[in-house]
Amino acid sequence: MDIKVLGTGCANCKATVALIEQVALAKGVPITLGKVEELRDIMGYGVMSTPGVVIDGKVVHAGGVPSREKVDKWLAAGGG
To answer: Would you give the DSSP letter of residue 24?
Structure first.
């Protein structure tokens, strides 16, 4: 599962990365986690409010740190 967190490096973006890492580790789900920090690249996904989360090329979240439950569902479902 390829996951990208879209954000310029703000506290919420860092919290989102940490949350996804924690949930994936707890569930034993192998992921590739990357960060997209260039504004031009973030806007290329159509995300105007960060942090955003992209799973396997699909935007599943934008604006604010997602809840742990939401991340659980993404990883359980194998994506958005």
So the answer is: H
